[in-house]
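<context>
A single protein, sequence plus fold
<entry> Chain with its tokenised backbone below
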Amino acid sequence: LAVASAWMLRERVGRAGWYAVILGFIGVLLVARPSFGGVSIHIVGALVVALLMAARELVTRFIDPAVPTSVITFTTTVAVCLIGFADLEPKPWVPITAYGGTLLAASALLVAFGSWAMVLAFRNVTVSVVSPFRYSAVAWGVLWGYLLFNERPDDFAYIGMALIVLSGVFAMHQE
């Protein structure tokens, strides 16, 4: 986001901001650990999603302020649903249980609220002020991965995540 906002929005990113970008990128490389043998499709998917989210947040800046935030949020939510339905691996239909339906509804509400909050935030302040808060997703991802799936990142991933979070905190402190 910092690179794109400097290029597309002509926002000023100082030397410290560029250092934070480089530090965060090194952290991403430590987490993803690409090799000559290839990169996991899951890592590629995560990077594509990150790029799409950055694009959404940058495009939001160009939308006429007269367009209500709720309309932008609804459009974003529909786009996410359509992309989700474009899953290339067909699966047989499985009826949704009451528990699964409850989780699905809760997820939908949380995603809609999160999208609304992000649109509202990116419409009213510079990108470089809001984007560092996104790094908190790293901590939440690790916590939920552990609680729901008993996943434990290795040492390289922890170091990479620490660098990502530190770069965000550093960038936020510079602002």
